[in-house]
Amino acid sequence: MRELPTFSPQPASGDRPRIIGLTGGIGSGKSTVGRIWETLGVPRWDADQAGAVLYRQDRELRELLLATWGKDVLVWNDRGDHVDVNRRQLGHWVFRDAQALTQLNAWVHPRVRSGFDAWCDGQALRSRPPQMVLRESAILLESGFHRDCDAVVLVTAPEGDRIRRAVERDGLTAEQVTDRMRQQWGDDRKRPWVHAVIENGPADWLIEQIEACHWGLSGNP
What is the 8-class DSSP label of residue 17? Predict the structure, then answer.
């Protein structure tokens, strides 16, 4: 693991927690790392879960998707109202079309950023604000969200393990997983931008690596 920078024990801006970006490609296990890290008392914001909520709640966004991809991109109720996004169908289209993915991101990313900002502001208002929070996103670097972070941690795993995990977890085909992987930066491209790397292969021990990141980034020995 890369040597971590030294931080003071106080939040970077004085009015918000330090933001630790947590990223990794599909099937890398970043959410597993995030859930373990949460047990150390660090609040976690999951961009994927936030996106799912956004699709259910943001009618304007769904109308944009409807106008672009038609009715099959949405989930409809018995009354004929669209109530959610068919994320599997949407993914099938955009992960094979870079232009379509760029358009989708242009609509989604500003909304996701606003959601995180509101969540982070809420953390700062707690009676005992956390010293740091996790900002988990598969495309943290690709989206530019890392610029808002005080440090970035990358979770990696062998490609074969990543494909197997995603197939078993999401019910995708190996081809669908590789379509998604091609739209994300490879680990070699990400490494120069991060402060630490957590290896999540079959023989790797996660807890020790997570604890090392936690204590290094919190400024404690």
Answer: P
Q: What is the rounded CA–CA span in Å between residue 62 and residue 45?
A: 23
Of the CA atoms within 13 Å of residue 52, those in its CB half-sphere come to: 5
Q: How many helices (H) and strands (E) does the chain have?
A: 9, 7
Give CA–CA dist 164/25, Å, rounded: 13
Reduce the DSSP state of residue 179 to 3 states and report it: helix
* pLDDT score for 218: 81
Q: Is residue 3 part of a domain?
A: no
Rounded CA separation 144/74 (Å) = 28
Number of domains the chain contains: 1
Q: What is the pLDDT of residue 220?
A: 57
How far apart are alpha carbons 121 and 192 in whole angstroms? 29
The sign of the CA dihedral 208, 135, 190, 88 is positive
* CATH classification at residue 125: 3.40.50.300
Please state, in angstroms and rounded to a whole number, the distance separating the CA atoms of residues 24 and 139. 8
Burial of 115 (C-beta count, 10 Å sphere; 0-12/13-18/19+)? middle
Average pLDDT over residues 185-193: 94
**What pLDDT digit, counting tens, does each position of 99-152 carry?**
999 999 999 999 999 999 999 999 999 999 999 999 999 999 999 999 999 999
CA distance 124 to 114: 16
- State which residues form the domain around 75: 18-217
Residue 172, domain member (yes or no): yes
Structural domain contains residue 34: yes
12 domain residue, yes or no: no
Whole-model pTM: value is 0.88
